[in-house]
Known about the structure:
By secondary structure, the chain is of the alpha/beta class. The protein has 16 helices and 17 strands. Helix 3 packs across helix 4 (77-84) and helix 11 (259-269) packs parallel to helix 16 (391-412). The model has no long low-confidence stretch (mean pLDDT 94).
Amino acid sequence: MNAxxxxxxxxxxxxxxxxxxxxxxxxxxxxxxxxxxxxxSISDDREQILSTLExxxxxxxxxxxxxxxxxxxxxxxxxxxxEFFNTxxxxxxxxxxxxxxxxxxxxxxxTELNRRQAEVPAAxxxxxxxxxxxxxxxxxxxxxxxxxxxxxxxxxxxxxxxQVMPRLAKYTEASFIVHHTILTQGVGESFLxxxxxxxxxxLPANVKLAYLPxxxxxxxxxxxxxxxxxxxxxxxxxxxxxxxxxxxxxIFGYNTETMEEVVxxxxxxxxxxxxxxxxxxxxxxxxxxxxxxxxxxxxTGSVIAYSNQVKTELLGVDATILEKYGAVSEDVVRQMxxxxxxNLKTDYGIAVxxxxxxxxxxxxxxxxTTWIALACGDKTIAKNFLFxxxxxxxxxxxxLAALNMLRIELNASA
Length: 414
């Protein structure tokens, strides 16, 4: 079976709210063997909703709708669904008891506007919403399934997981879609494509490869389709083993792992500690590291050395070296890494200094020029990068490159 997702809300179209519902639903449907053919975002407008529902019913077996179920006038989805299914609203006592329970738990009286949340189209099967006041609605028409859910993500996810998916499972075909993702850092997708071209050309007919780039990382997603999930898992494992020798130097993880998680696990495993000295990244590396639970066992702290004064006074960078080579230089970043490691008494010290942009570049050091150093034991490694012209992407790329340097060193150490 195939599905289409429709998200409703003016806030989605003007960029005020990012549509995370579609991404989550697409993943859940795919894992259940249901192919998503199209995702559409539309406004809270009667004509838009009616025409989109009609078009979707011609393309998909399952139409999932989120949004527009609130109690205010701009939430028109419920009334338009009544029109589309030629039905009318009726009061649902179970839904009202849920509204009353939620409001009572918050010490808020139920108003007439809130009471209307318990009205549902007579032609639907109401879907309980334990997380909110708007019930979901399940319709069937001409062999197609239409499911309307709240737009609030945590309400939608609970409803889909406990109400919608168990119902859909009774009707979906016994096919499976399995994904395996290989995570790479440090090279672009064109380089990867050239390197693994022969391997990719020999993929089985039921397996597809997708290149999913983002700043500093390229994800390689393998997708296998078939009627035996265990066989598909084994098939992808074999393909991964064939791929790994071709790009082993740039693979840092698999599936949902993050660079900071991988590095954190290595530091914990090897009982090593880390400190960072950050200039152009402004604490972003420290933020990534501390986003992992338990990072206090290996991360000591960070010095955000944005000014030259902090570099010299807190990290011990030689002012003469700063004057001669500039803050964005190999000599300075080496001293920053050594200084933070020494001052915070850690096994490893990472330092970053660069020109994030959009201003500050020169012919010799264009925007994106970044020096990264890693101090450990009696050695300090330094590398120069040229990331690009976008400030946000440069910061992200620099942080990932720095953590990857540490990952490689940790793997190489005894």
